[in-house]
Specification:
The structure holds 2 protein chains of 2 kinds. By secondary structure, chain A is α+β, with helices and mostly antiparallel strands. Chain A is about 30% helix and about 10% strand. Chain A folds into 2 domains: about 30-115, Alpha-Beta Plaits, CATH 3.30.70; about 115-185, Alpha-Beta Plaits, CATH 3.30.70. Chain B starts with a helix and ends with a strand. The chains are: A alpha+beta, B alpha/beta.
């Protein structure tokens, strides 16, 4: 049989194994940091952490039960109120009861228009990018047409400038690990 | 089995790599990670009527995945999100695994013998005491053609009742009526191949993007490649389909007939009509008598754009624009679904769309067709073609035609007197008779009427009181709640058979795995029941699915829907065939009533002279342009109930959610029902997004979450109907079209308040 395994092939496959494992591990850790977004009305993550006294008044005021205490060990917002879009996204109330409840200035009305982050699509796991017909994120986005819309191949595309980072798309995404997640704004 | 070199390499390299970092591969991990032992089987998607080809991935006797069939001409490998997760439905926790009989109000597991003997005994008692018409069958556009065929023979041919209906009555009957009255024969003249050749699409009463996503994708791809392609939508609601619309007319729900007449008037006035085609191919009629073209024009005089605008609430300019776009396009394809069919004037609405094509000659040529979209995977194949309605017999035959009865009785091997000449009770009449106790026993197969009937709660009484047998793959459903016996039916991939989709295409589905639990194929359940009821001679001859199919296609021979060439042998290889297929070497028919259609080709020359089309379902071969009045909905809005309620589908769910409700991913995408309210209306009523509201009609009320969104026009609201917990059909009206007997799900009057 001329199907002998060459040294080169052996090492290539061995390397591929490590590469796959690594990318798998990194994706898992990535989804860890993106699991949470901060509540509306935050000036910057640093100031939020500094000003939040962990009274959790805002948590009790959220009508959608979206705010929760971050219990992930080692997370930069550990102990502070956060939103986990996959569990319950922010519905962007017109009167922002969470901000109104904050007495320390961690959440401020003057920053209520500021986005929580930006939705990012992973083309590797998005059903639409894989050639199937799925419209969940676009159909559920309250700003469909401006924040997210279909391209000519019926794939969703995020318009970063208009995206509020509410995470409704993440919540509704019908893949096992959400193919659309919220990336926190830099700075 | 020889291990491929690459697989071996991967496995050994990985094992070495894993060993080097001290990781032991978990037992079985090699298999899941590296072995590629999945075998793929050709099948058809279980959901809508598009008929997408799927490949079922099977590994170690289990269905593990589904992917689009790249070779299938319909979807070319694409699937929607429902189809993508279809394999998960097979192993749903809600699968019904054993026959059960309700004894003293409690479900008790029984053997197949006991269950079938019990049903046979009860049915025979009812038949003996009250006559055959005290029994009924209610089937489904999701059952395979073979299954419906068996039920048809048992009920119409052996028991001797025409009380045999199916849920396509609730979705396609008006399209059938429309085609029969306009063109003479049921089902579209063209196929999906017209999509890529059309210059204009007229989408009426169809949310194509969500209800037929793969067809929508094809339209969208076509438009992307050809930016001059125009899309006109007539629909009271803004939907995701609007992404591609060039023009959208928003009529008040149920008031669109005048628009279609006004369009016809403009088309004739402005010279877009094809006079030559009209002369040779078209007759004119109103509800009483034949008309001349001149008289038809007279009739249309009433339908000025201004009049239509007043009736429908659309601006006259837009109506003129739509008519001109239709007239100017060289080819045009109109598509519609429930927005036209589920109406008290569904047949008329269908006629008026086809009118536009007949007046402009935009039919029978590539890229032009009046094309009805079907909602269920085998509504066309099993029920419309297979004759699964109370007035039909297999292969587009009618019970009232003595010749048809004789032909069918001969093949069935039953005395012709067994088949009654009078049509049985249509769906609404059937469930009304159940309420009244005129029907004492009903066999329900593969459908969920307790949730899907309009004004559903009205019909629960009959289901509760009479003897109800439900053959289902899932348990519980809204209907099994009222059942006396439930019979577990094999699900998709657990049985073989044929599905016929929207474009006249019959496709074969393979049996990939054995049924879950004790489930059996519906056709065999019916066969065994028939034998126990005393019809051994008639039913014992069926040993395989192919036996049933061969008998069925022998009945289609020589008809307009000849399937003689679509044998299992052939269907197993090809990606379906579009009838007529008169012989095994025939490739299938792209266009009916014209050259290339074997029925047309076989006509004598003198009939075809000077004509490019011959509508052979009509005595003189001429199609009919109908002058129908513009009637509004049965229950228009008024001061008491000021909102027009419409119901419909979402992309992620299907029908009563017995299937899609078992897939967590789909439930995540659309977890619950809601009522869409226009922001203007919401503001007036003081309702915010996600508030709980109460929607009320004259028939019932429903507490549901509000979704404030600019999809419905002010004055209209919309509820997706899939959920049993938020059952939209307790609100809908059960008034029906006098012609097609299809109920008006799409329009009724409602009011709404904060809960």
């Amino acid at each position: 049989m001329d199907d002998r395994i060459s040294r080169k092939d052996f090492f290539r496959e061995a390397l591929n194994f490590f590469r796959d494992q690594l990318s798998h591990a990194s994706r898992q850790s990535k989804s860890g940091t993106e699991r949470f977004v901060l509540p509306p009305g935050v000036e910057s993550p640093e100031l939020y952490l500094e000003k939040c006294n962990q009274c959790y008044d805002c948590v009790g005021k959220c009508p959608h039960y979206a705010l929760q205490v971050c219990r992930q060990t080692g997370h930069f917002a550990e102990g502070c109120p956060v939103i986990e879009p996959r569990r319950q996204p922010c519905y962007w109330c017109s009167d922002f009861p969470c901000i109104a409840a904050c007495s320390t200035g961690a959440l401020q009305m003057s920053f209520k228009e500021r986005s929580l982050g930006t939705a990012v699509i992973d083309p590797e796991s998005c059903l639409a990018y894989q050639g199937n017909c799925c419209q969940a994120c676009v159909n559920n986005c309250p700003l469909a047409g401006t924040a997210i819309q279909f391209d000519r191949q019926l794939r969703p595309v995020v318009q970063a400038a208009a995206c509020t980072g509410c995470g409704i798309c993440t919540f509704y995404c019908p893949t096992e690990v959400p193919a659309i997640t919220i990336e926190l704004n830099k700075g | 089995m020889a291990l491929k070199r690459r697989e071996f390499l991967k496995a050994s390299a990985a094992a070495a790599a894993a060993a080097s970092i001290g990781v032991t591969l978990m037992p079985g991990m090699e298999k899941t990670v590296f072995a590629d032992s999945t075998t793929w089987h050709k099948s058809v998607c279980r959901f809508c009527g598009t008929g997408c080809g799927v490949m079922i991935g099977e590994k170690n006797g289990k269905v593990v995945s589904v992917k689009g069939d790249l070779e299938n001409t319909i979807n070319k490998g694409h699937l929607c999100v429902k189809g993508f997760y279809l394999h998960k439905v097979v192993y749903a926790k809600t699968r019904l695994l054993h026959p059960m009989i309700k004894k003293n109000g409690k479900w008790e597991r029984v053997s197949w013998d006991e269950a079938l003997d019990y049903v046979a005994k009860k049915f025979n008692e009812i038949r003996k005491q009250y006559g055959p018409d005290a029994l009924a069958f209610y089937g489904s556009g999701q059952a395979e053609t073979e299954e419906t065929y068996m039920a048809n023979k048992l009920f119409k041919g052996c028991i001797g009742t025409n009380n045999m209906e199916g849920n396509p009555r609730l979705c396609m009957a008006s399209a059938v009526g429309g085609y029969l009255t306009s063109l003479g024969k049921d089902e579209p003249a063209g196929t999906y191949a017209d999509i890529e050749k059309a210059e204009l699409f007229l989408l009426v009463g169809s949310n194509t993007a969500e209800s037929h996503p793969i067809i929508f994708e094809r339209i969208m791809r076509h438009k992307n490649k050809n930016p001059d392609v125009k899309i006109v939508i007539i629909d009271p609601r803004k939907t995701p389909t609007d992404q591609v619309a060039d023009l959208h007319l928003f009529p008040r729900p149920g008031w669109d007939l005048a628009i279609l007449h006004a369009m016809a008037r403009i088309i004739i006035k402005e010279g877009y009509a094809d006079e030559e085609f009209i002369k040779n191919h078209v007759n004119f009629r109103d509800n009483e008598k034949a008309l001349t073209f001149e008289e038809y024009k007279q009739f249309l005089e009433k339908y000025t754009p201004e009049y239509a605008a007043k009736v429908s609430g659309v601006s006259p300019d837009e109506i003129v624009k739509a008519a001109r776009m239709f007239g100017q396009a060289k080819t045009a394809m109109s598509m519609w679904t429930m927005g036209l069919n589920q109406r008290t004037r569904g047949v008329w609405a269908n006629n008026l769309v086809t009118n536009l094509h007949l007046l402009t000659g935009k039919i029978g040529v590539p890229g032009s067709d009046s094309f009805s979209l079907t909602g269920q995977p085998n509504a066309c194949g099993g029920v419309r073609e297979g004759g699964g309605l109370c007035h039909l017999l297999p292969a587009h035959r009618l019970v009232k035609n003595p010749k048809h009865r004789a032909e069918v009785a001969k093949v069935w091997g039953v005395p012709v007197e067994n088949i009654q000449p009078k049509p049985g009770k249509h769906t609404i009449a059937m469930f009304t008779a159940l309420n009244k106790g005129e029907i004492k026993g009903i066999y329900i197969m593969c459908t969920n009427p307790a949730q899907s009937l309009p004004n559903a709660s009205k019909y629960w009484k009959g289901l509760k009181e009479q003897f109800v047998v439900v053959a289902e793959s899932f348990f519980p459903t809204a209907t099994t709640e009222y059942a006396d016996v439930v019979l577990p039916a094999a699900f998709w991939a657990e049985k073989e058979g044929v599905y016929g989709c929207t474009e006249r295409r019959s496709q074969y589905m393979e049996k990939v795995i054995d049924p879950q639990g004790e489930a059996r194929w519906d056709a065999w359940i019916l066969r065994d029941l028939a034998i126990r009821m005393g019809f051994k001679k008639e039913f014992e001859k069926y040993k395989t699915a192919e036996d049933i199919w061969n008998e069925y296609i022998s009945l289609t021979k020589g008809t307009d829907m000849d399937l003689s060439g679509a044998t299992y042998r052939r269907l197993k290889k090809v990606r379906g065939l579009t009838w007529p297929v008169p012989s095994e070497d025939h490739p299938g028919t792209y266009k009916r009533y014209t050259k290339g259609d074997p029925v047309f080709d076989a006509l004598p020359e003198e009939k075809k002279k000077g004509r490019r089309m011959y509508f052979y379902g009509k005595p003189d071969g001429k199609a009919i342009v109908w002058a129908r009045p513009d009637k509004g909905p049965e229950e228009p809005t008024d001061a008491e109930y000021p909102l027009a309620l419409s119901t419909g589908r979402v992309l992620e769910h299907w029908h009563t959610r017995t299937m899609t409700g078992t897939v967590p991913e789909l439930n995540r995408a659309v977890p619950k029902a809601y009522v869409e309210i226009n922001p203007e209306d919401a503001k007036k009523m003081g309702i915010a997004d996600k508030d709980q509201v109460i929607v009320e009609t004259r028939r019932g009320k429903l507490k549901i979450e509000a979704r404030v969104i600019d999809r419905p026009k002010p004055g209209t609201i919309f509820i997706p109907w899939h959920w049993e917990e938020w059952m939209a059909n307790i609100l809908t009206i059960d008034a029906f079209d006098p012609g097609s007997k299809e109920p008006e799900y799409k329009v009724c009057a409602a009011r709404l308040r904060k809960a």
